Amino acid sequence: MTDNQTVQAYTDAWTQSIEAISELVTPLPEGSWNRATECPGWSVRDVVSHVIAVESELLGDPRPIHSLPRDLRHVTTEATRYLELPVDKRRCHTALEMTSELEYTIIRRSRALRNAKQMPNEPVRWPAGPQSRDIPYHELLRLRAFDVWVHEQDLRRALGAPGNLDSPAAQVARDVLLQGLPKAVAHRAGAPAGSTLVVDVTGPVEFLRTVRVDSAGRGSVDESISLAPDVQLTLDWETYMRLACGRGRPGSVIVEGDKELAERVLANFSVTP
């Protein structure tokens, strides 16, 4: 694809996922907005608030003036504090207020994306509080498609409404999560030089990848087949996504090979902040 086609593909993936969120939560009764999700400390309302907050910040809206309570145990860093502030601000909002703001935010953000003048590689600000930095415009769109899809899945699991595991944004999520796999294996799990690990993922998004650790301890990932890997992990796509996003436990993973190394890898499998 050309750079412009890539930008459009990421935009389309984001659009499909954020509109799916709107369709999912619009008919919810008030009580369902308080259901817990797998995001620590966050309810359905909080996840939707986070999605609104990030898109609003990308639109240039000012951050709300608000003081966080001091008893939020899941807020442990400056980064989580930054993300929590607009979420906590909306905890008193009704279902109608939430769905109305989400719908309006989608309309505004979609218009902004259609009218955007940025070139694919043009540096733009990634709003992440103390971790804010400039990244290429196409990368911002990729990360937004990824983040919105992951939160769509958070909401679907909380509400018992599975779907879109094979959507365009799911393909984006696969690539984002695989990008972080070599570091998880080589650095955080401490896989020794010369070792190989295969992940065989089944389900709506199927793939097989091999992580190789070179003599300097650096990891890389490719699509080639390793006939005798030190570790092979077989799991379905939803399990892979949940583990890689820090949402699940490795109970439904089939492990072959070095069990100790496999345990270290699974303990360090999350690649999201």
Verbal overview:
- The chain is an alpha+beta fold and about 270 residues long.
- The protein folds into two domains: about 5-165, Four Helix Bundle (Hemerythrin (Met), subunit A); about 180-265, Nonspecific Lipid-transfer Protein, Chain A.
- The chain has nine helices and seven strands; from the N terminus they run ααααββαααββββαβα.
- The chain has helices at about 5-25, 45-60, 80-90, 95-115, 135-160, 170-180, 180-190, 235-245, 260-265; strands at about 125, 135, 195-200, 205-215, 220, 230-235, 255.
- The strands form two sheets. The protein has a five-stranded mixed β-sheet.
- Strand 1 (about 125) and strand 2 form a beta hairpin.
- Helix 1 crosses helix 6.
Secondary-structure blueprint of this entry?
Blueprint lengths: L2 H23 L18 H15 L19 H12 L5 H20 L8 E4 L6 E4 H23 L8 H12 L1 H8 L7 E7 L4 E7 L5 E4 L8 E6 H8 L9 E4 L1 H9 L6
Parallel strand pairs: 3-6
Antiparallel strand pairs: 1-2, 3-4, 4-5, 6-7
Distance between the termini: 29 Å
Low-confidence stretches: none
CATH topology of the largest domain: Four Helix Bundle (Hemerythrin (Met), subunit A)
Tally of separate domains: 2
Indicate the CATH architecture of the largest domain: Up-down Bundle
Pfam families: MDMPI_C, MDMPI_N
Keywords: Isomerase
Protein name: Maleylpyruvate isomerase family mycothiol-dependent enzyme
InterPro entries: DinB/YfiT-like, Maleyloyr_isom, MDMPI_C-term_domain, MDMPI_metal-binding
Search tags:
Nonspecific Lipid-transfer Protein, Chain A; 5-stranded mixed beta sheet; about 270 residues; Maleyloyr_isom; two-stranded antiparallel ribbon; about 15% strand; 9 helices; alpha+beta; Four Helix Bundle (Hemerythrin (Met), subunit A)
